[in-house]
Design a protein that fits this description.
Elements lengths: L1 H13 L3 H26 L4 H9 L2 E2 L2 H6 L3 H4 L7 H22 L4 H22 L1 H4 L8 E2 L3 H14 L4 E4 L3 E4 H14 L6 H22 L4 H8 L13 H6 L4 H14 L6 H14 L1
Antiparallel strand pairs: 1-2, 3-4
């Protein structure tokens, strides 16, 4: 068991792939929430874990609730409603994410997943508070959203935009180009924005749009993910160097400098000295004289 856990840790934290880290986080969160929920219901016959997840971790469409639970646009994208929900999300993330990392490296996966998730959250919340189909029935008051689908769609559409003619084999279908696969998903999601999972379909469309725009911007020389990453990199300390030639010629060299130059002569000979080192040695000899 310990060896298995070490292998999982290595895959998530030390393999360099953000894809493995994302899949690991999603699976761990799913197991943690659902195992605790089952134990609670089995032992205490209560539903506090489910209530907490629904009201404090999933994304609400209601603007007043969202203002109080401002962290949910992040937490919702790591939650799933059922085994098949997480299974298909993680499978597509793994299949397409490998192609994405192969061509764009391993440092953009996490950033695009998050940007796709945030775009999906915006599509969901704005649509439920703007379009009459949702507002006339006050659906925003009771609707919540969970799932990695928006982030996964961002990676799928981004990969298809970058490599439209890349072909993958699908069971029972055969070879399919990524552009047709992405187009199929987008059309199915659009057709479902008035169905029973309207919020989920809207978030998928938001993630898909983000994936498309990101690659177009990248092809135009604008890497949004690298730009955001650079904002959080520590700035190098500035080193101010003042040169005063007249003072430098007359100033006596320090003993440490002389010792280093003598060591260099003993190892590499006098000819290996730079012009500045020869000048320092000359000033030191004149001082001793």
């Amino acid at each position: 068991m310990s060896t298995l856990w070490k292998d999982i840790q290595h895959k998530m934290l030390h393999s360099g792939s953000k894809l493995n880290l994302l899949i690991g986080i999603n699976i761990i969160v799913y197991l943690l929430v659902n195992i605790l929920s089952v134990l609670e219901r089995f032992i205490f016959r209560s539903g506090f874990i489910d209530y907490f997840s629904d009201h404090y971790l999933q994304l609400p469409a209601s603007l007043p609730v969202l203002a109080r639970h401002f962290w949910t646009p992040l937490t919702y994208m790591f939650l799933h409603d059922g085994v098949f929900h997480i299974l298909f999300n993680m499978l597509w993330l793994y299949w397409i994410g490998q192609i994405f990392e192969e061509y764009l490296g391993k440092n953009r996966t996490m950033g695009l997943y998050l940007m796709g998730g945030f775009a999906g959250a915006i599509f969901f919340v704005v649509s439920y508070n703007l379009f009459p189909f949702y507002t006339q029935n006050h659906l925003a008051d009771t609707s919540i959203l969970a799932g990695a689908s928006a982030g996964v769609m961002a990676i799928i559409v981004a990969t298809a935009t970058l490599l439209p003619d890349y072909t993958i084999p699908l069971i029972l279908i055969g070879p399919v180009k990524l552009k047709w696969l992405a187009l199929f998903f987008v059309i199915i999601d659009f057709l479902g924005i008035t169905g029973f999972n309207a919020g989920g379909e809207l978030s998928h469309l938001g993630g898909a749009l983000m994936g498309f725009i990101y690659i177009r911007q990248l092809q135009n020389g604008h890497d949004w993910i690298a730009g955001i990453t650079n904002l959080f990199k520590p700035r190098p300390k500035l080193k101010v160097v003042a040169k005063n030639p007249s003072r430098g010629r007359n100033e006596l060299p320090r003993q440490e400098e002389i010792d280093m130059i003598l060591d260099k002569i003993s190892k590499s000979g006098y000819d290996s000295l730079t012009k500045q080192e020869k000048e320092i040695l000359f000033r030191a000899s004149n001082n001793e004289g």
